[in-house]
Amino acid sequence: MASRQVRCNQCGSVLMVPAAAVRVVECRVCHGMNQIRPSTGPWSQVYNSFHQFGGRLRSFVNTIMPGSVNRNPGYYYGTTPQLGYYPQPLRPSYNVFGPKRAVLCGIRYHGQDSQQLNGTVNDVKNMNMFLVKYCGFPRESILILTDDMEERDPLKFPTKYNIQMAMRWLIEGSQSGDSLVFHFAGHGAQEPDMSGDELDRSDEVICPVDSREQGNILDDEINATIVRPLPRGAKLHAVIDSCHSGTVLDLAYVWSLREGYWTWDYQYYRVRRPNKDTSGGVAICISGCHDDQSSKETPALSGGYAFTGAFTYSFIYTMLNEPGLSYGRLLSAMRSIIRGIPNDPYASLFNTDFIFASRQDLQEPQLSSSMEFDVYATRVVL
């Protein structure tokens, strides 16, 4: 039977339904119920005519009122080719601002076969508790996006669009003295570099829950959204627990080992340097691994009680147990914790393979920054 694609009326995800179906379908992403209209038969002509009229009306309203926003997220991805109409996206109204703000995103990828993860939602819960209890972040200033089965707010599902809007909220209205945190726990990948600014000819990406339908979020976009607008006096920390995440913010400098010495390594072709600097602020990214490595999750670090990302757990553990530590000490301690996992008795119990056979099997947390600084003298302050 022929099938067609429609959009969820709540989160905008793609749904595959029979072409002639008139039925209610549950979205596999946000679990919202959608009434599917027929694409054939006498009623389809009535519906399509009404839909085209509605499109003309919305287009006219958006023309005379540019600030108007379509409140139905299902229309964000839809188009009317005959009219060339591209409706405006639904913009979540996160009204809470302040000197400390954070976006925490954890994705398990429920129902996506071998792509499903186990510890990412736990990572976000742990990071939320750490920021509130030990770093002074107000609960209402932390925006959490997860595909936890308990989450029913479609705007807090980690779709590509929702993550993009959350990053915009994080940076919007920021000023001198602000401390911003972006934490992502989920899949990461690499794609061919189309802009020609990558030394390894690959863009690093993060994978939203609907990446199969909507695509990934490239490092170029992340940089343009939360790095370049960062004003003077503001600081951004990105804590990225995903594979291939070493330079996922496209920052200019990476703390690297060269000829036996640790030093800042410039990341771009100096003859055609891209415009990826901040607007005066400082952006620092602490990544789970290098660009050519993978990040792991394991129950070993939690004593066998729950899966967590090895990187996120080691980050929080080190920050709690060594207050006032420097960035250099943080990296060193985290690497020691992760390398010590094979000796944990729970590793074999849960079949957690951390025996590193090659560089790709290693997981070495990496530091990148928008500017050079003394890694061993500068304290980590969120």
Automatic annotation (TrEMBL):
<comment type="similarity">
    <text>Belongs to the peptidase C14B family.</text>
</comment>
<dbReference type="InterPro" id="IPR011600">
    <property type="entry name" value="Pept_C14_caspase"/>
</dbReference>
<protein>
    <recommendedName>
        <fullName>Peptidase C14 caspase domain-containing protein</fullName>
    </recommendedName>
</protein>
<dbReference type="InterPro" id="IPR050452">
    <property type="entry name" value="Metacaspase"/>
</dbReference>
<dbReference type="GO" id="GO:0005737">
    <property type="term" value="C:cytoplasm"/>
</dbReference>
<dbReference type="GO" id="GO:0006508">
    <property type="term" value="P:proteolysis"/>
</dbReference>
<dbReference type="GO" id="GO:0004197">
    <property type="term" value="F:cysteine-type endopeptidase activity"/>
</dbReference>
<dbReference type="InterPro" id="IPR029030">
    <property type="entry name" value="Caspase-like_dom_sf"/>
</dbReference>
<dbReference type="Pfam" id="PF00656">
    <property type="entry name" value="Peptidase_C14"/>
</dbReference>
<feature type="domain" description="Peptidase C14 caspase">
    <location>
        <begin position="100"/>
        <end position="373"/>
    </location>
</feature>
